[in-house]
Prior knowledge:
It contains 16 helices and 2 strands. By secondary structure, it is an all-alpha fold. It folds into 2 domains: 2-32, no CATH class; 50-332, Orthogonal Bundle (Ammonium transporter fold). Strands 1-2 form a two-stranded antiparallel ribbon. β1 (171-172) and β2 (179-180) form a beta hairpin. α3 packs antiparallel against α11. The radius of gyration is 21 Å and the shape is globular.
Amino acid sequence: MSRTRAIFEKLKAVKLLRPMLPILTTLEGIFAGTEAVTIEAPHIREHLEIKRYMTAAIIGLMPTLVAAVIFFGPYVLACVLVSYLVGGAIEVAFAYVRKREIEEGFLVTGLIFPLTLPAGVPLWVVAVGVAVGVFFGKEVFGGTGRNIFNPALVGRLFITIGFPGIMSGQWVAPFTDAITSATPLAIYKSAGTIPPYFDLLMGQVAGSMGELFRIGIIAGGLFLIVVRVSNWRIPLFFFAAVAAVSAIGHVFLPATIAPPLFQLLTGGLLFGAFFMATDPITSPATKAGKIIFGIGCGVVTVVIRSFTGFTEGVMFSIVFMNAFAPLIDTMVINRRFPAVEP
């Protein structure tokens, strides 16, 4: 690593390359690691830092990305490329304005965002969505580590509300070019029918590019848990809350609330629970807080899916609970360590 760092130090010393200092510093961190250490106590050893999180998250997303390309063709890669180019340009611009290093966290956001979109979405919509997500979802708060909401979901919500016709009518079934507006959740809401569960598990239905191959999503999500990049409490209690609420609700309102297994295997629930709800920046830091957060996401998801005009509730539920994450942590800490009266 010392030889690699020495190469980057020489490059940063070149006068002609000084305008590229944020980019060179970022590449140095990726390939040579960081030399940053705490100056004074307290010293806390933490296994999770941004480069490790970024690398593990991208590895965990690979099965989903590969499946999306197989299902929908190279257009998926075009969407990812546009996401990286537009969002990356905004990241670089803010790095120069703030005179700071480029924050590598966007490498995850730039990959997650296009995977939440329908395969028929125009590239200009991808560009608008990722620009709004990065700018308003992260940079206006001060950048990575200071944002309240998941940037990918901020962009997804914006284009969902801003371009409802495009976002609700550009679904493509895998291995076809046929455009359909009928996702499993929409079909259940209108007709009450459920496709075979095996088709849901293997992604043989219409849906977002990254939500269909659910075996790959589960494998990637478990990988992140095993390497301790994400915490198991959030997805576990997310799934448990969805299953419990829908099981009870389906008994009393079968035409309105779908059964538990169907809820778990449709829409972006698995993808959102494993890759977005577990975001260490926008979710609670305390263990009890993560449990509360997961339960809240699950309850809100079922409520939105069942009683609103939106067929999908995962992205709304995660963003909604993101807003409560600091309050949840505060309540947990205050209960765990009550103030001592003088």
